[in-house]
Every structure is written in C-alpha cells, then in structure tokens.
Amino acid sequence: DAGVTQSPTHLIKTRGQQVTLRCSPKSGHDTVSWYQQALGQGPQFIFQYYEEEERQRGNFPDRFSGHQFPNYSSELNVNALLLGDSALYLCASSLVRGRTSGGYEQYFGPGTRLTVT
Amino acid sequence: AQSVAQPEDQVNVAEGNPLTVKCTYSVSGNPYLFWYVQYPNRGLQFLLKYITGDNLVKGSYGFEAEFNKSQTSFHLKKPSALVSDSALYFCAVRDPTDTGRRALTFGSGTRLQVQP
After folding, report:
1. Distance (Å) from the C-alpha of residue B4 to the closest C-alpha of chain A?
2. Which residues in A lie closer than 8 A to residue B103 (C-beta atoms)?
3. Three-state SS annotation for chain B
4. pLDDT tens digit string along B56-88?
5. Domain B3-115, what fold?
6. How many CB pairs under 8 A join A and B?
C-alpha cells in the first residue's frame, strides 16, 4: 500500500520564478492538504483540497495556488518566489468522505525541499 | 483561534528512562489532539490521537499521551526511552466546533535526544 508520495524531492529556484510541486495521496484517501514547514518551525497550513475544490485556506497570499485532479492527486503552485518561500513543503492526505467529525488523522509525505536563491 | 504550545525546545533523557514531551493547547471547544514525529529529512509520522473517551491514549512504538482538560494539556509519554526515539515531535490540534476548519494547527516542535 503506497503512502503519500511527493515530487520532486529537492528544488532550487531563483527569486521571481514559479514552481509546481506534486503530491499523490495514500491509496483510498480523497483529501489533500498542503503545509509549509520553515526551518526550525512547525508546519503551517496552506490549503486543503477535496472533490477538486479548495475547501479551506490558511494565511498565505494568493501567490500560492493549487489544484486537485480527479484521481485525487494534487499540485501546489507558487508564483513570484521570494527568499522567504524557502521551506519544506509537506503534503498530507486523509479520507474525509462520509465522516461527520474532524477526528481523522492526516498522513504526510516526505516533503519537497524548496530553496529560493 | 486555536493554538498549541510546546514549551520545551529540547528534551534530553537517558536510554531506559521514562520520557515526557509537553504540549498545551487552546481551542474554543473540546479538541481533537494529535502527536506526530519527524525524523531527519522525512515527513511527519502519525503517533496517536485523542478524540473522546479515555484520557490515556496509546499509540505507535510504545508511546502514549494523557489528555487533561482542566490543564488543557496533552503530554506525550513513554515508559522507557530508546536511542531510536531521538527525533522531532509535534503536537497538533483541530477544533471540532469550527466546522469550516479542517486544518491541523501545529506546535513549534520539541527535539527529543535520548542518550545511550
């Protein structure tokens, strides 16, 4: 049973460029959340996708956008990169359909390390 | 707004000794609480969760956590630490009363060092 996978593992970009990160959820999961983890900090919620729609968004500018595909995989796009965007980007998947409460755990991928120079 | 505090940046313990990693939370209702562990260059790995019921929750790798509503705490514990437990530990909360919120709010993390 494949867990959450992310690609690429590492990425180096220049300020002002655009980047796309990819995530495939754990088998059977229908929801993908993205988090940013800066060095020495806990993960910060970016947004969550369910049924191909953005369902909730954290305190991130609209330079951060995403997409979910019919097979539940997801992309995170960041435009006009800033030095401060350098971080580990984590994708987490979960099964939300049919649940009436929020007591579900999220399963995380290994992350994509983005360095902006 | 929900929040999580992990008051210790680092916890040092000798192998074989019990360990405790502290976590306190703030939410408007009864919380959903989680512990995750992160090994170097890896994503977060789920350890355990508290939803309702027994205040002592058992999880993976011999870890357990105690929910204390009056102290708004959810400390992670293990009776006998292993060197392989050395990692970064994160406490997280989800507020069930905010139906729109699906995100986990994480603490800043506690580095556990277990000395042989």
Report:
1. 10
2. 33, 45, 48, 56, 58
3. CCEEECCCCEEEEECCCCEEECCEEECCCCCEEEEEEECCCCCEEEEEEECCCCCEEECHHHCEEEEECCCCEEEEEECCCCHHHCEEEEEEEECCCCCCCCCCEECCCEEEEEEC
4. 999 999 999 999 999 999 999 999 999 999 999
5. Immunoglobulin-like (2.60.40)
6. 70
